[in-house]
Amino acid sequence: MSSLPRLRCLSFLQLKPPPCLPLFQLKQIHCQLLTNALKSPQFHAHLIERYCALSNPQATNLAHLVFTHFHHPNLYLLNVLIRSTTPRDSIILFANSVSKATLGFDDFTYIFVLGACARSEAVLWEGKQVHSRVIKHGFSSNIMVQTTAIHFYASNKDVGSARKMFDEMPVRNSVTWNAMIRGYSSQKTGTNEHVRSAIMLFKGMVFGVDGAKPTDTTLVCVVSAAAQLGAIETGSCIHGFIEKTFYAPEDDIFIGTGLLDMYSKCGCLGSALHIFRRMREKNVLTWTAMATGLAVHGKGKEALELLEAMEAHGVKPNAVTFTSLFLACCHAGLVKEGLYLFHSMEGRFGVEPLIQHYGCIVDLLGRSGHLEEAYKFILSMKREGDAILWRSLMNACKVHGDVVMGEKVGSILLSLQPKQKKDALDLDDLSEDYVALSNVYASCGRWKDVEMVRNLMKIKGIEIKPGSSCVQSF
User: Fold this and answer.
1) pLDDT reading at 190 higher than 90
2) Is pTM, for the whole model, over 0.70?
């Protein structure tokens, strides 16, 4: 039947890779399915995938209609829709299916919905409910369901539950190990503790009895952990393991990028440059990582030369690349070069300046003592300057002893503070700007003004946050 002229458009649904068809063409194909009473779940599944790929509300709604108005409830279509639509939509769809109780779920359903929970933010409670259904209905023995649950818990910052699941699994494969190692290395809080756990887990994987072998994903994650820890000995050992067990790191763009980033963060810029030069293929992440390494080591001119080489190789810099280059200019005091780069980034490279780029320029001007220029630069911004920009300029005023500019910036900072009543915790957070203004006065010996600022803090009930420090043993 698909050979008929009016039905040939259905072949577009089965092309590999799938073409990006516009919405009106997908509607035409949808009409052919309806008018010709084609009830094949495969055709409808492909149509759902194409609708969801357009990522607009109308197309997503049509994808839901395809599933809802299929001639009988179909689990395959439900799984395809959960997998293809947005994470939040997937969770709501699954919850509605549970309440209707018209379909029994399989392991793919739970894999896709747990994956949606992993990609969402602040859905730990919802994901736990899904996991409880996994256990209740007997799917907890499926290794892919368990692995996805580990990924979900780690993505929602509950690394303890993820590790508990990992330890209780009787069988693990490389994907399971990778999920746990990546979960540790991606945590933002308790970083050192977690990255150490990632490295220890990698050792267990290498010397364990599970039979699971490290993959390129494993190596990228564990190299990232070594970079976060700043442990050059551990990073060098992992590098040696890669060389002996797998292949030369320059053959893999992601492992090579991870290694040069690790060596840069550990202070071995020469080793980072050596790997960078040996890499046969480089993407924007590779060039950006190298630019960042040069920046933090004060090699500003070399970092700017890297931009020229990057352009010559046909690689377009992104917003992160420019942040690294501005950082390089700040560390090397290259004011003219930094300003020229900022004013040319949109016209020459097509990258619109973001708030962090404006912050870098304010920091560059402030470090070099061009406080008036920094002040005018903030006022001339296309977007309103936030408190972070003004605080950067305030710090520069303190360093250079410019009380007049410090008073002007201080008054702006205080006016930016919210007017509504705050609780005690927020009042502590407001102390930063008052302390900065007080320190500007103190640096010039204006103690009466210091006292005035301190008294104002007492009247408003603003207390200084107590300082803290920690000593960590290795």
Assistant:
1) no
2) yes
